[in-house]
Fold these 3 entries.
Entry 1:
Amino acid sequence: MARNEAVSWGRSMEKIEDGFDLSTSDTEEVHVLAVDDSHVDRKVIERLLRISSCKVTAVDSGRRALQFLGLLDDEKNSNSFDGLKVDLIITDYCMPGMTGYELLKKIKESSAFREIPVVIMSSENVLARIDRCLEEGAEDFIVKPVKLSDVKRIKDYMTRELRMEGEAGRRGINKRKLRDSCDLSSSPPSILSSPLSQSPSPSPSILSAPCSPSSLDSPTTRLKMTSSE
């Protein structure tokens, strides 16, 4: 039994190759590329993602992330891992060499990877920085320390996105069109708030209409609410 435990432990050990942590599971759905120059913060986000049943590839810089995606012209054919599909990129904002914002811009400029959601992490709650990242196309902005609830929220969003992508593939339509149709079907009708309106009160079903699965809760609003508390 001891030998079997040793074999099992050995198989579960993280494989480190050229700066990439490639320890993943074949049974998990969402593959996340995590980028952080801090070894401690990188291990924290890795652990939270794995607790949430995500595949994780962790790198320590924006350049490493671009290398993994095959976006470095000088290394595109030698060090990229084309067989691993990335569903989400989560990156620290403040990193030497290339910031998370600069990495975000590089990804959104790529025709091959611009559709991959990018989440920015930062230890500073700076609204101007948050707005800047969101305008550039970031999906969300998380203030460190990252909590399990943050990761689960992102995982739930990504699971819906993957499900929608599969549905779009089966129906032979564009995922964006399917998302738009879901947005329209889930949006509650507009209700006039004028005191002169004699229309009956909206039913509970209208008030509790589901939020669109196409985006996460507004990080700016969420962080403002946190600050006010």
Entry 2:
Amino acid sequence: MVDTKSWKGLATNGVGTVDCARHDMKLANGVGDLQQGEKYVNMDYLWHKKLWPRLSMLPPRLHFNQDGKVIKFFVPKLHLAAHIEVCQTEFSFNWTPGVGRTDSKAPKRGWANMNCVASSTKEMGPGAQRDTLNDHFGDSNWKKVTALGRALLRKISDAVASEKEHRHALNNF
């Protein structure tokens, strides 16, 4: 939600979020303010700069055990070309083993239902704005989790049908 035409008098004119591109979910408390557009410094800070020291300031129940885990950060493909060359290789979905093919458009899709909510928070204070957005993002995540069984069944059914079709084509080849 960035409207650069009417930002005068506002502390922020938009928000950015931390998203899971694979699962199309927003990170809890992963909302950050933007000033005068999507500036890289805002998104970098929100996204991964000094993430571990910031996480250590959270209450102990929210701490994340990093032991034995690899955490990777990526830039959605649409935004990657605007970054410097070293970022284009370090944060690219395409150059990372094990990622597979992803359109990485989940962060954009998530805003389709949120833009009306985000614009209604324009005149709220920072705490109320974040709470409102986190509530709506949490609701969206919950709906996705509760629909996961149906979605996985549909996808596995499609995959089985595609596998049969591909096997038939390969045998005929």
Entry 3:
Amino acid sequence: MVNFVSLIAPLSYIVVLVGSLGVFSSLYRKRKAAKAASLEPWFPPHTTRDIYLSLLHLEGSKTVSDSILKAALMLRAKEDIKRLMALRQSKNSLQMLLQKGCVGDDLWTRFSVAESEMEEELRDVVMEANAYKEGWGQIIFQTANEMVNHDRVRERSERVAADAAEERKWWDEKRARSARELLGEEGTSDSDGVLVENVKKGGKGKK
């Protein structure tokens, strides 16, 4: 027969150990959550999301049409795409810096919180899109990504045009400066020639 008395001590130890680990784990999670909440957010305030939610919760005569809400939701998804790209671009380099000890755990905590918030944000946008039209949630981010790429191409073209205009202005100024310098040298040469000629004439007169 099993001697239950002899098992009381080991079982009590296990119970105490499990309870202690449970308390420690709970305290650690609370402390970690409190620390994460006190850290500076990875991204600035999500303005387009706030605008959409403000429009969505307008009441009475201030309510807006679905077309305006859809446009506001699209702008929100567009901003999400930009933030998602930024997170993906930063993750690998941040992991390498963390492994080398070049950055602290606080920075990684901020990044992890931003990733979790982004996952929740994407799910929320998909749900909102499907509420307007079934299936829109599956393509809204594809459309937003195309809009972001279009904006990047346009901004790049504008920068190229601005750089070309600046370079053209620089060359025009350089050409004008060179022309002025050349005209100045020619004027000096003409004056010197006249002076030499007068000297020669004066010399002949004395003879």
